[in-house]
Amino acid sequence: MAVAYTKIVFKMWYFLLKHRQECSLNAAQALGYKISEQTQLLRKLHKEQSSGFCLLRTLAKTFGPYFLTGTLCLVIQDAFMFSIPQVLSLLLGFVRDEDAPLWKGYLFAFMMFLLSCLQSLFNHQYMYTCFTVGMRVKTAVMGLVYRKSLVINSAARRTCTVGEIVNLVSADTQKLMDFVVYFNAAWVAPIEIALCLFFLWQRLGPSALAGIATVILIFPLNGFIAKMRSKLQEVQMKYMDGRIKLMNEILSGIKILKFYAWENAFRERVLGYREKELNALKKSQILYSLSIASFNSSTFLIAFTMFGVYVLIDDKHVLDAQKVFVSMALINILKTPLSQLPFAMSTSMQALVSLKRLGKFLCQDELKEGNVERIPYSPDVDSVAINNGTFSWSKDGLPCLKKINVKVQHGSLVAVVGHVGSGKSSLLSAMLGEMEKKSCHVTVQGSVAYVPQQAWIQNATLKDNILFGRERIPTWYQKVLEACALLPDLEILPARDATEIGEKGLNLSGGQKQRVSLARAVYRKADVYLLDDPLSAVDAHVGQHIFEKVIGPNGVLKNKTRILVTHGLSFLPLADLILVMVDGEITEMGSYSELLSREDAFADFVKAFAVSERKENATLKGTRKSVSRLSMTDFSIDLSQEQLISGDMGSANIQTMEAISDTEQEQDQEEVGRLTQADKAHTGRVKLELYVEYFRTIGLALIIPIIFLYAFQQAASLAYNYWLSLWADDPVVNGTQVDTDLKLGVFGALGFAQGIGIFGTTVAISLGGIIASRHLHLDLLNNVLHSPMSFFESTPSGNLLNRFSKEIDAIDCMIPDGLKMMLGYVFKLLEVCIIVMLATPFAGLIILPLTLLYAFVQSFYVATSCQLRRLESVSRSPIYTHFNETVQGASVIRAFGEQPRFILLANSRVDHNQTSYFPRFVATRWLAVNLEFLGNLLVLAAAILSVIGRATLSPGIVGLAVSHSLQVTGILSWIVRAWTDVENNIVSVERVNEYAETPKEAPWTLEDSRLPLGWPRTGSIEFKQYGLQYRRGLDWALKEITLGVNEREKVGIVGRTGAGKSSLALGIFRILEAAKGKIFIDRLNIAEIGLHELRSRITIIPQDPVLFSGSLRMNLDPFDGYTDEEVWRALELAHLKNFVSGLPDKLNHECSEGGENLSLGQRQLVCLARALLRKTKILVLDEATAAVDLETDNLIQSTIRTQFEDCTVLTIAHRLNTIMDYTRVLVLDKGQMAEFDSPSNLIAKKGIFYKMAKDSGLV
């Protein structure tokens, strides 16, 4: 269903938007560049607004006809609704006329019953149509947003964060759906109001105008309130967007937060957004309470003014039962459109806000298809050609690439080299069409495969990540795995290639992610390969293997065009063409020998770094020797023993898997390889404890006044209605009634008392709801931030974002609104039952069985509806996860041309979600029809009993009983609807509280901590029989490690992949707790201090540089603990001072989500600046220079040597040359300490280290 409707809308919308963009473009060109910035801004706003209305118009064209059939049902329902008071008038006339035959009374009673039943049927057919159309609109717009997110350009992507896009899909599409459901009320309500007033005029003459005046006064007040609430809602949505965006970043960079002990700083930022969001909500809810009070009191106000004017203008005007209760029945009908109108206005306002937001997103600049001309493959033509190219990231941005002239012949290997930030990755982006083309012509021939610098891995099996939508060809698949050095990894994954990979490749090491990303590209058999530094994240010997087997002259891609960005000098002699980039320009171009012979900057660079490169990598002869010597043992030591800090998570699959016994080995491979926990749906009715939990957070101090206010409000209502019946039965003396003024005064006082009660209850419930949601959000945030890393590896971020967005939104608004409605109608029902039983005590015999039947139908429905709500919630999380994943990997998806497959995937997930949603609202209609039938039976009973007892009953009491029983159908429906809403949404409390039960890490701080202020003073580290397991029952990641590191020592940690190098670092930071043994820092057992006390006093520079959106200063110092001078000093030492000084906002430069507006190398330097700022006595480096060029690497190493001279430094090294001058080197092998001595002594011993050094050409 989703696919068909989305396609229709998308085509129409796309055509309209294109046409609009072309018009505005031509106009802009005609005006030239004279338009001021202000005018440009106004035009942009107008464009966004008009595009929102354009979307609405397109939706109306597509879904209008079906929607109109529902409108027809609404008109017929209205006809029946207005017939009922006329029949009531006839019935009251019959009761008054003692001579009327009895059959007439029975006829009128059955007519009322029949008309009520027909009204119910047509009303719910109309509601069914509206919900169906609403669901289709929601589905269509979701598909539209998804498609748009696949085509927006980089500049737009920076302004539209993942969190904002998820919010468009979750909140804004729902607002559009609500608009469809309640839209008709906006125009039908005024017609219904006019008809009511016409019939009232018939009864009361010109006095009805007083009622019109009251309505006219109520309307502007509520229009004003709706407008103010709309503004407040925009404010609230803005802060909600900010909060969700920040939560998304926190979940993405949770490991960094834990390493740096930054959770509190980010927690405060989230709570800052939350507080502003709740303040806007509180103001909005108080205004809403005023609106509800005015509308709920409208029945009384209209009756009061009309009856008051009627009796005061003429003494001869008498209020008899017929006039009073037919008028009251009409006023009660009037109440429905009056109450629906503000809701319709409110949903319309919210829909306009959402349309504006959707319009703004759909107006974002798209990647132009003409950026790159794709031509069919032909061996005689250049594979890639750029003539005099100038490119920038945004339409108005400064050029990042200038004077680019490149021609790449078919089948050649091109290497792109240059410093950090010189534009190497941008060049590949330009070839992919990801950049704005200022001038030039770019041609790419044949199909393209792309390997990004930071591997993008899907939350799917390893096999699905490599196949990427293609069919599996066993021989080629096997060849690709072998070439990309993945076969040894398969041996150690629990379900081989059927193992599920976590979000963003959480349970793979940096090197494994990069190899999977490369394998995906190789499997494609594309014509052109764009490889953005794929060898930086892998060990030197694995890099050589991949170059030899995949990229090099003898690799599987030898006949393909390969453009390789690299920092490895050893690969350059084998390149057919080398492009040297400096500040976005190609300064030199030619083969390796040509460039050396020119003796320019490149030649100097090679000479300067050839020594270190020679140390790091073997000569080509040695390379061939080492590659031929690669064996399984070089790679395959149990992955669970090595957990690289970058998210080298062997643990994640391990945490969802026990050690497999012989009996279990038969189990399904898919189950073995499962990693993430799907969102689970609870079953059965909502437990009473949930309500208790919710009301406990509100507090007894607020609950007791709420109950009292409801009782007071309903007592006032009952009193003024009964007072009316007494007034109607008052005998007429000389054509008038006595004490009219007194009766009117009492009636007025009781009515006003009820209005004050309504306002008090709604405000109290709103405030109670805000108190509860504040508590629940705070608990959720604390529970998530206190969870260990294993929790984030096995819980998809979509599940968590769903809790923080949709579920918290339900607790904020839906539960209080449902409670207001439910309590109001429950007390109203009590009032009706009391009145009917006062009039005809025998009605009690009918009310009792009807109540039992009602309770049965209701309980049967609520359980079903509740379960469907849960299933719908659970199937919603994968939609957000998929959106999240798509937005982050959009460039890869586009490069491979996989957009149609991903769109189908998104559609199928949306459809799956709707299969739970559709039965839910159909069940609601089923329930409403059944319940209203029960209510109509009560009308029939009250009418027949009145006919039977007409001799003893006064017309006033009959009118009171029958007119109130007519309200029962509506009241019963609303009670169940409200009850269901509360039950459905209280599930959100259940889902938010789920994470209170999950395991938590150790306390952040200990109250009675005796930690010295300057600890650690020396930086000595001691391991005593230290052992580490990722989970009980699994192999030891580290075994019996006993060693001491003295103060100021520099220790390198080396070993093959999987030896346990990073596990050691994780142990020091207590990311994983010791399974046995102890670690002492400055003779203090680290297990005896709080996690933040430990993590804030030692520093790590991780492999994956993670930045958060916010200022550069915040990224360096979130607690504002350092002065600007200290921050600048750290930037200078990290070689970033010149770069930051050149930025317009300097330290306040806004980093985009994930730090995407900085290059990977620059982000790594920011991480170095963080370490320099903290300047702790212990520094851990985890392959921290993998993403930078050799020159920058040398600068970093020299900075570390000078600035951390007094510190203990532990370096997990892939490049052995970086640690050859260290005090000592620790060699790990299969989780055990194999060797520990100075580099020279280890080489002399000719053990494992000697073999590794020899493989790297260092000896």
TrEMBL record:
Membrane spanning stretches: 66-85, 105-122, 179-201, 207-225, 286-313, 694-712, 746-772, 829-857
UniProt superkingdom: Eukaryota
Family affiliation: Belongs to the ABC transporter superfamily. ABCC family. Conjugate transporter (TC 3.A.1.208) subfamily.
Protein name per its UniProtKB record: ABC-type glutathione-S-conjugate transporter
Catalyses which reaction(s): leukotriene C4(in) + ATP + H2O = leukotriene C4(out) + ADP + phosphate + H(+)
Originating species: Triplophysa rosa
ABC transmembrane type-1 domain sequence ranges: 68-350, 706-984
GO molecular function, one term: ATP binding
Gene Ontology CC: plasma membrane
Pfam families: ABC_membrane (PF00664), ABC_tran (PF00005)
UniProtKB keywords: ATP-binding, Cell membrane, Membrane, Nucleotide-binding, Repeat, Translocase, Transmembrane, Transmembrane helix, Transport
InterPro entries xrefs: AAA+_ATPase, ABC1_TM_dom, ABC1_TM_sf, ABC_transporter-like_ATP-bd, ABC_transporter-like_CS, ABC_transporter_C-like, MRP, P-loop_NTPase
Chief location category: membrane
